[in-house]
Automatic annotation (TrEMBL):
Gene3D superfamilies: 2.40.50.100, P-loop containing nucleotide triphosphate hydrolases (3.40.50.300). SUPFAM superfamilies: MOP-like (SSF50331), P-loop containing nucleoside triphosphate hydrolases (SSF52540). One of its GO terms (molecular function) is ATP hydrolysis activity. The keyword Magnesium does not apply. Belongs to the ABC transporter superfamily. Spermidine/putrescine importer (TC 3.A.1.11.1) family. GO terms for cellular component: ATP-binding cassette (ABC) transporter complex. It comes from the Bacteria. This is Spermidine/putrescine import ATP-binding protein PotA. It comes from Pontivivens insulae. It is an enzyme of class 7 (translocase). It catalyses: ATP + H2O + polyamine-[polyamine-binding protein]Side 1 = ADP + phosphate + polyamineSide 2 + [polyamine-binding protein]Side 1. The complex is composed of two ATP-binding proteins (PotA), two transmembrane proteins (PotB and PotC) and a solute-binding protein (PotD). Residues 29-260 form the ABC transporter domain.
Length: 385
């Protein structure tokens, strides 16, 4: 941690905002029955209720048109809610203009002033707040040091790389000690390697400073890597709100299972449910067991969800109650650390297995008939998608 980051964090601690006290339930940011419509009829955000804890990194994740960016824009003040209330630290901000909300904002296109130097870009929000010259200079220096750009204050944005410009945009959002920073697809314009590097930089900076971050992305890997919790949006509603591990390992419906990570699906009908076990007759005729999630009664259509890494070819790695099912190899791909095998299973030609490359596996050939298996608890019986 840099000396600058330590000083910044200590300053927050002196004001009584201890990082250890920050929980996901203290309601630093709240959406209470918030709706948004642009035409007076069709809702793009539908009765949103959401509480974000002080110091939390919450990501709004979803496909285009799901409502996530609209929620961020309402929080920033660039859009107004059609119905409901948004509060910041217990105070309604519905009628407070954006520049008076004290919220830092990082955009995908950086939004830096091209005619200003880096230092002047950072000083601008401080000048708007009528801050004195000496204090402005001290805060600009500290913010640049936070993002390891202290030597670039005299350059103009056009003289910086994309990653450097993104660091400056982040520093500008932090320069006036904003306790809440909003980020709208901030890494979308960067190449893959730099984007992944910046994910960890932002994550570590958040951990060091203890600020609250609300982050919008459609990139599921980004959301899983950086977030304390992720709100998965679709059709104007939150489909599931949970820590990354829960979203991936325990999706609550078919949409989340399909949207988060790679996922195998098999269609079927519930025959019986007893406790934590549902017996499912697949449409191809096989009878399997699965963990019932949002299905409740016999005769109900269901989608079975199984993660590729939970499926085994080596039967010695399976528990005694594992299912074995016939499969035909369609494609075998070497990917370095893993092998990716595409199979035909129970009528599904897109069933995928991911196997760790341990150095002793044989190469599977297209057309080869094999048996695969998985533990019943790794198969989740979800709503029919």
């Amino acid at each position: 941690m840099t000396d600058c980051a330590v000083a910044h964090m200590n300053e927050r601690d002196k004001r009584g905002r201890y990082l250890s006290d920050m929980t996901a339930n203290d309601g630093f940011v709240t959406f209470d029955r918030v709706q948004k419509s642009y035409d007076g009829e069709n809702l793009v955000v539908k009765d949103l209720n959401l509480s974000i804890g002080k110091g939390e990194f919450l990501t709004m994740l979803g496909p285009s048109g799901s409502g996530k960016t609209t929620c961020l824009m309402m929080l920033a003040g660039f859009e107004s809610a059609t119905h409901g209330e948004i509060k910041l630290d217990g105070v309604s901000i519905n009628n407070i203009p954006p520049h008076k909300r004290g919220i830092g904002m990082v955009f995908q296109n950086y939004a830096l002033f091209p005619h200003m130097t880096v230092a002047e870009n950072l000083a601008f929000p401080l000048e708007v707040r009528k801050m004195g010259k000496d204090e402005r200079e001290a805060k600009v220096k500290r913010a640049l040091d936070m993002v390891q750009m202290g030597a670039f204050g005299g350059r103009r944005p056009a003289q910086l790389s994309g990653g450097q410009q993104q660091r400056i945009a982040l520093a500008r959002a932090l320069v006036f000690d904003a306790e809440l920073v909003l980020m709208d697809e901030p890494l979308g314009a960067l190449d893959k390697q730099l984007r992944e590097h910046m994910q960890f930089e932002i994550k570590h900076l958040h951990e060091q400073l203890g600020i609250t971050v609300v982050y919008v992305t459609h990139d599921q890997g980004e959301a899983l890597t950086m977030s304390d919790r992720v709100a998965v949006f679709n059709d104007g509603r939150i489909q599931q709100l949970a820590p990354p591990e829960d979203l991936y390992e325990r999706p609550e419906n078919s949409f989340v299972a399909q949207f988060i990570g790679e996922n195998n699906t098999l269609g079927g009908r519930i025959e019986k449910i007893e406790g934590d076990v549902a017996e499912v007759r697949l449409h191809s005729g096989e009878l399997i067991s699965a963990f019932p999630v949002n299905v409740t009664q016999p005769g109900e259509e269901t989608t079975i969800s199984i993660r590729p890494e939970r499926v085994e070819i080596d039967h010695t790695r399976l528990p005694a109650d594992a299912h074995l099912i016939d499969a035909e190899v369609l494609e075998w791909i070497y990917m370095g650390d893993i092998f990716r095998t595409r199979l035909r299973v129970a009528g599904n030609d897109q069933f995928v297995i991911k196997s760790r490359n341990s150095g002793d596996q044989r190469k599977l050939k297209p057309g080869e008939k094999i048996k695969i298996g998985w533990a019943p608890m790794d198969a989740r019986a979800l709503d029919a998608s």
